[in-house]
Specification:
This protein is α+β, with helices and mostly antiparallel strands. The protein has 18 helices and twelve strands. Strands 8-7-6-9-10 form a five-stranded mixed beta sheet, with no helix packed on it. A hairpin with a 5-residue loop joins strand 11 and strand 12.
Amino acid sequence: MESRPAWLAAVIQDVPRRFLDREWMYVPVLADGTLHPAVVRWAASNMTETSARGYAYDVAVYFRFLGERGLAWPHVDRNVVDEFLVARREVVGPTTLKRTITPLLALHDRAVDMRFIAFNPIPRGEINATKGRKQSAAISYPHASIMRWRQEGVLGLGSAREETMMMRERNLAYVDLLYQTGMRRLEGHGLFYFEVPSRPLRGEVLVGRIPGALSKGRPEVGRLVYLDGSHRKTIQDYFVGAREVDIAFGKKSGIYENDPEALIVKKVNTRDGIPNTVLVSRGSADAPGKWRKLDLIDLRERIHMYEIDEADGKRRPLLAWLGDGGKPLDIRRWNRIFREASARTERSDGTGKIDVHPHTLRHCFAMQLYIAAAMRNEQRRRHVSESDLTRIVNEMNAWKHVKDRLGHSNVETTMSHYLAPLQAMEYAQILARRDDAPSTITRTVTDEDNWAMVTSIDEAMRNIAQVDDRVIDA
């Protein structure tokens, strides 16, 4: 047993006397008046006595809430924490509620470090002042859930569908591009068809580049993205199929020839096989041209950019995604497409809905590749246990490499929102881990006769979903 700090005495007096004779798991005080070691370690880590006293009071309120319900804090899950936050929000404001969560996070982190509890159930994110709940910055789904959403929601047939099959092929291609590369909505939407990753890099991996004008951050800086060649089929099928049909409609209607803001791309230059500049003339291919960096051409101009079809001398749009009659698709249309696809996954009894928007796919990409990379690194040491994966996911010092792939200028953004370190040049092997991982947990014996657990990425994500609402097992 460890004695409580002197400054905690006043706070302890606020705990109802009837709880002091219960086990330590109900309140931070043991039956004999001493504190659980995890609480002592946590209390000792506070910098000032004033902050520590305030934090200790918040912890006492939390444990009192659990004690009144007969709950053991090592077994508390996210649902119980949500109940506490809602109840606390009824008597305090959002600022106080945020202060309350700070010490609870620290206390449970300390308990995890000391192996008294397996997971920290206290959520991280912003406070929803109205509901008294934490808002998660990222929502992710296991791969199997995204595949169900993709098949039932995006591609699935049904009498209520407004989209033609050609539209569904386009939607599926866009979904696959975002999901397989981690692009943002604007980044994927604003690409010319020749900017979609197509240059072979290693094995089946294709590399492309998002121009700076579309990528979040400085407009003069773009970034490389990677796409597994086996997943490019839906994109290529759209380019040579439905997109060509839409272009034929556009040519027939004259919308391309009648565009008063038309910019004609006469030539595309590449660097290391990746497009970087274009020779552009205004209105006509015969007009004088000017070389322009793709990094500096934004979506507003891209909508009006064409190439000349050598077969008939007519204009062809360069944007990858076309809408009704061959017009470039309005970027806002994707939100509706994703919303309608998500609605189609809901079962008749009101369950099973997988709610996906374009940015959800980015979070799924990041989370899955993080787990794949972590599993791969752990397997090099020949010991991969379920607790190893839990530790990897929760370790803050593991977030290293993915910021460049997601276009973040600061690794803190990646750590806070995307949960996904990734080394780009290992993309092929990591992707293989996701697609080829076993569907069940299997056991092998090491030379030291210790059990090693090898788990699939989806299995790891389902485990995380049990303790963190940023991952939803649907």
